[in-house]
Design brief:
Blueprint (H helix, E strand, L loop, with lengths): L2 H12 L6 H19 L10 H37 L11 H10 L1
Length: 108
């Protein structure tokens, strides 16, 4: 990877894009579950405390931030470059329904 490309990616990592629809859905789900745990605990020993809340928030931030950045940088960019260099184009895949695209990606 060239130095200017690495610098651009680091800048994008430091200044992330607004969350996508799936990311918003994940964040709203996390918030909903955390609020349910605060209100409707199953057992007293399972009561959510500050450490558990911070651990959950850290996990989500780590997942969306660091793991998302690394998967985009190490996997998606490499695959896109490989497809471009081999002359592989899949515009027909975008026209398929979502579940069909998932199946095609899992099989390939």
């Amino acid at each position: 990877m060239r130095k200017d490309e690495l610098e651009r990616r680091l800048i994008l990592f430091a200044d992330p894009a607004p969350p996508t629809g799936w990311q918003r859905c994940g964040l709203v789900t996390l918030l909903f579950v955390q609020l349910l745990q605060l209100v409707f605990e199953r057992r007293q020993g399972w009561r959510i405390n500050r450490q558990e809340l911070l651990t959950d928030v850290f996990s989500v931030v780590f997942g969306y931030g660091v793991i998302g950045f690394l998967s985009e940088t190490l996997v998606n960019t490499s695959m896109t470059q490989l497809k471009t260099s081999l002359g592989i184009a899949t515009p027909w895949l975008a026209a398929l329904p979502f579940l069909a695209r998932v199946v095609v990606r899992r099989v390939a």
